[in-house]
DNA sequence: AAAAAGCAGACAATCGATTGCACAATTCAA
DNA sequence: TTGAATTGTGCAATCGATTGTCTGCTTTTT
């Protein structure tokens, strides 16, 4: 009923008449221990129901076998998929994962950094908050040589590895797709320009436009925080202008959703009057009416890759590298852009 | 560049010419230490940039200040919201959270139990996998007196506390709402009957039917694993019968979605020919066409409450109690049931 | 003024696994 | 046969914070 006195390596040692250090080495498969002893130790460990005390081991080795994750919000599908990828890989390698949410606020992000640091995680994977414009708090990690890998929303200021999707190509595919559907006046709603991924999506869009000699109108490119409300405002601004676009490429699905809702409300037909393409392939995009054409990016793969990279740095003690891994994206054609080229 | 030798309580002690134990007690606000000394210690700690080493403390106290969470899948909105609630509360109280996903498989759930146990978490919050029909693996915790709280998908076999939403009322509200809209033949697609929450939703539905003297037809109540595919099969079965229902109450939104997709495909008008109500208020339900009437349940609140309960058990060492907290639900009326009573 | 009580702080053991070094036993080379 | 090399284990210190017990000093009580 009380504390079951836990089995320690010393109990095993006593049972076998050997020393604790030998047991420890045997369990860690140290080459200095004979196979016979190793087997005896392992068998006895099983018999006694030994459970290693990670705490003690952590204290001695100052490795926690834990990685920290900082994400804006877990309830966004892309991030929860990323978490799944991170966990999958980390657990398989014997690492635990501690997750912190910044709620897209820089201050909370700083708190997350502190929490993870105090938990003495062996490494950190992060996707920065929307309004993070300065990365000093991350120096808590880099100063102490704690490996750090960014994903999706990455930070260029710090010398770390990064995992992103091919946002440039995504932007390009989206725009070219709209062009192929005969759209002539293609607007783009972009995100905060201090984040690479939005810059890249925009650049991809611009490249497609140039490639096909479509005139680029600065009024048709607007920056937005990409939430529901601002999406409506952007839709209004674009669609009520004297020369409205015949297509909009939104830098995320949430904004594309706002556009669709706005258009429905105003009797603008999609895709006939206005074609729409989003970005991310959020789960809801498939069920919208019309369903949303979008760029698929695999959160799972991004998480997996980031973890692979991080654990490699941790285990090989190579120090923070500056590798950048770019994962592929894919255009998913649905109804919102399904019109005949005219 | 190498290991910055970390500041320990002994460094503080040396700097002040006092002993380590005094520093420890001062930092823990022990009453045996004078205010003057406490202040001196705290100031010095700040000056030196002292960061307590949780590992050492954990080892000594055998408390990890960490709670474990086992959930089916983090990518489902209800669960990610619950996680947010759990984290919010736990962090505020100085606890870390380790999350494990069972992917709705009993075997993985067992693995999660082992992982969390090996991590020596101070307590566990769990929502069981769909196919878990036996709870022996959870005894790993109960045997060692590790507090355990279930939420949403709870287990009655073990003597633990539980947090659920009012599924019975939800079922009742859903059915009564359909009745108020003039529906006469109301089908119900329920979930696995070894899970209380589906039993309760069903019972709520039955009570409403009885209250309003609507005939209950056993053929109109079917059990389903409640996924996309099976939802289509259920829809087909119900709607192609010789006497199809004029309303369906599905035990989750995913199944309701399947019904809507099936009906669209077959030219069945919603809500005129068929009214539909789901359960959960998943984010997509708002954007469907027609938008989905559903029962809202707050994952966040459930997570918060479960954590409150768990931390209370941990901190007051009251042992596992058997409290059951029931949180409210709410009907959200949308288009899929918006027809005039006939 | 002597005894009792209270206070502030120090000492040292402890949590359990790891690891540098020492040492014994065995094998091998010369 | 002796010295060297190799192999298998044990000893004891260590990681850093916590905590039961003890000490010396101050205050209070009678």
From TrEMBL, chains A, B:
GO terms for molecular function: DNA-binding transcription factor activity; transcription cis-regulatory region binding. This is LacI family transcriptional regulator. Residues 3-55 form the HTH cro/C1-type domain. Signal peptide: none annotated. Residues 7-61 form the HTH lacI-type domain. It comes from Ancylomarina euxinus. The keyword DNA-binding applies. Keywords: DNA-binding, Transcription, Transcription regulation.
């Amino acid at each position: 009923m009380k504390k079951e006195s836990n089995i320690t390596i010393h109990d095993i040692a006593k049972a076998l008449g050997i020393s604790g250090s030998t047991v420890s080495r045997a369990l860690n498969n140290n080459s200095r221990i004979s196979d016979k002893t190793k087997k005896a130790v392992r068998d006895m460990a099983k018999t006694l129901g030994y459970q290693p005390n990670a705490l003690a081991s952590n204290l001695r080795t100052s490795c926690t076998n834990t990685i920290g994750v900082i994400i804006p919000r877990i309830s966004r599908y892309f991030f929860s998929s990323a978490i799944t990828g991170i966990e999958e890989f980390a657990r398989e390698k014997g690492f635990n994962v501690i997750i912190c949410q910044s709620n897209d606020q820089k201050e909370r992000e700083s708190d997350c950094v502190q929490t993870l640091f105090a938990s003495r995680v062996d490494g950190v994977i992060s996707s920065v908050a929307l309004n993070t414009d300065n990365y000093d708090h991350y120096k808590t990690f880099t100063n102490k040589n704690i490996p750090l890998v960014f994903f999706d929303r990455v930070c260029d200021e710090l010398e770390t590895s990064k995992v992103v999707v091919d946002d440039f190509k995504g932007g390009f595919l989206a725009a070219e797709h709209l062009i192929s559907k005969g759209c002539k006046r293609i607007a783009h709603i972009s995100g905060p320009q201090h984040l690479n991924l939005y810059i890249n999506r925009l650049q991809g869009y611009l490249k497609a436009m140039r490639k096909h000699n479509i005139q680029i109108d600065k009024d048709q490119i607007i920056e937005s925080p990409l939430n529901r409300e601002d999406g409506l405002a952007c839709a209004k601004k674009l669609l009520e202008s004297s020369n409205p676009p015949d297509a909009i490429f939104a830098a995320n699905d949430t904004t594309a959703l706002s556009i669709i809702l706005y258009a429905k409300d105003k009797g603008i037909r999609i895709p006939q009057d206005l074609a729409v393409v989003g970005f991310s392939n959020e789960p809801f995009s498939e069920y919208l009416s019309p369903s949303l054409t979008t760029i698929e990016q695999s959160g799972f793969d991004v998480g997996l890759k980031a973890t692979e990279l991080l654990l490699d740095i941790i285990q090989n003690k190579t120090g923070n590298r500056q590798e950048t891994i770019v994962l592929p994206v894919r255009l998913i054609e649905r109804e919102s852009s399904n019109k005949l080229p005219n």
